[in-house]
Amino acid sequence: MFPTHRPRRLRQHPQLRRMVQETLITQADLIYPLFAVPGDGFAKEVSSMPGVYQLSVDKIVEEAREVYDLGIPAIILFGIPADKDTDATGAWHDCGIVQRATTAVKEAVPDLLVIVDTCLCEYTSHGHCGYLETGDLSGRVLNDPTLELLKKTAVAQANVGADIIAPSGMMDGFVQAIRAGLDESGFEDLPILSYAAKYASAYYGPFRDAAESAPQFGDRRTYQMDPANGTEALKEIELDIAEGADMLMVKPALAYMDIIWRVKQATNLPVAAYNVSGEYSMVKAAALNGWVDEQKLVMETMTSFKRSGADMILTYHAKDVARWLG
Predict the structure, then answer these.
(1) Is 198 a residue of the active site?
(2) Is there a smaller number of Cβ atoms within 10 Å at the N or the C end of the chain?
């Protein structure tokens, strides 16, 4: 009864607030995305993502060293090949850009975990995540033939030392296909972080600038999830768990914290939240205009992801967050 119970008593001193804080962000929660491109000594800032760059492999290694020194345990690699085709050759070729970047990072910073995005949209000439029917301009990916491409890509990434395979194409059965391919190739201990609940979101716009992966026609709504659906996410994660996923991802994160919470409550697997490009760019734009306090806003958002149930956070803010944590 008031005034016997006064919650403000525990808010009077910064050290006391620290002692009773329920949710804590650390560097170990963070995963930093990087974009690898061909060339040498190349670093090009993404116009829609201030502070984020397309980087040649030597520059990726420099970033990896910095990330590791900041206490961030992992990066996730995306690749932009020199050439694209309908077979997504750059995704699964032995000399693919992500394969070369993975090799270089593991040689230079062996204790940094390298997660590889196992998808095809950056590598196809049409920008969709797999095979299309000849002449089809709707963007409806052929599911089962695409599974074979994903399997080949995952094995190629495993062969060069990737620590975690992260399939993101939202094909039905993609975890099972990749798990089978990895096991058949002797990589039964290699974990899969599945983009289990990936929504067809407007928040991806700046990423498509960074990864040069915008669809040339149609959209991805025939394979990515409808933003209106929450219960469907639970169906997706159940399928991925049954197929052998070791960790689950919800993407995007900011407008989908209810999904992160529901996924965490429904499973005992680790859950990752992808704080995507549009979320990052909105904060950056507001901060550059002096409209918000960037550090406070980012840290509040990271804390909210953790509070909603995320065990890991993929974020372009990762280096800044690590520095702020000090």
Answers:
(1) yes
(2) N
